[in-house]
Amino acid sequence: MKLVAVTSCPTGIAHSQMAAENLEQTAARLGHEIHVEIQGAMGAENELSAPQIAAADAAIIAADTAVSPDRFEDLPLVKAPVKDAVNDPEGLIRRAEAAAEGGTVAGDGESNAATADTRSEGPDAAERAEPERVGGDPRKGLFARLRRLLS
């Protein structure tokens, strides 16, 4: 099976490289061909070409930053945090295999589960669903920390 993957972490110094290396080694051990693009502090390394993406059976995005899935719109796609590619690369590759065999798109669970729930429950489900929270914990923001420091 031919796979393509993108790894990315916020700093782009260590985790994205470790994830890429683990995915490459695990794919080779399982008998798959994989091309991994690393997005980090130095930009994109080993950038995936259009022919590589077109020849792939499935795609993996292991990232803690925003990675555009547009390039992989015709492929079964598995999305996960970069730690999954570091700690459990075989699990990610197995999910990509299952997605390729079923022709489905598999995600990290939260976003796709919410989407699947709203589709299956009818038109009122979208109104009941909680809006997606943007940003992190407000208590950890710069102004909140400054306010605690100065009070």
Can you describe what's shown?
- This protein is of the alpha/beta class.
- The chain has two domains: 2-108, Response regulator (Rossmann fold); 111-150, no CATH class.
- Helices cover 44% and strands 19% of the residues.
- The protein is built from seven helices and five strands.
- It has helices at 15-30, 50-55, 82-87, 89-102, 110-121, 125-128, 142-150, and strands at residues 2-8, 33-40, 43-45, 58-63, 77-80.
- A five-stranded mixed sheet has the order 3-2-1-4-5.
- Helix 1 crosses helix 4.
- The longest helix is centred in the N-terminal third of the chain and has 16 residues, at 15-30.
- The radius of gyration is 18 Å and the shape is elongated.
- The N and C termini lie far apart (59 Å).
- Mean pLDDT is 76; it is low at 108-126.
